[in-house]
Amino acid sequence: MGANKRDSKELIFLNVNDGSTQSGMQIVVQSTIENFEDIKKLSTGASVSVEGTVVASPGANQKYEIQANSIHIYGFSDPEIYPIQKKKMTLEYLRDIAHLRPRTNTYGAIFRIRHSAAIGIHQFFHEKGFYYIHTPIINCRRC
Length: 143
Hints:
The protein has helices at residues 36-40, 91-95, 105-127, and strands at residues 5-7, 11-16, 25-30, 47-56, 64-75.
């Protein structure tokens, strides 16, 4: 789940992000949904699946939002244990939690740029007739 959740008695606004973009998608959850009380307990790092209808958003911060028909919760995330929260984290702090770095916006953006650069370079050389091969690494243990 994305970095924030706002709720009231009748509505919950979730920001869900799968890491493919810098910002997430706003999910609007009505109180009539079957597991509304469980959805209220979600926090950053939770794993969910959302089914709904994409509609134009009346809000100023996004063009579209999803009106949820159902939300399946795969797993909750304890904010006391899960170290990535809404607050800004330093790169030094992220060194201590290397396995979670890709889930941050900073590293997600870096990985998307690296991916695009690698694809562009490979495509350029491929179109010029070059081959991408992995040659054997020759080393000497007794040198």
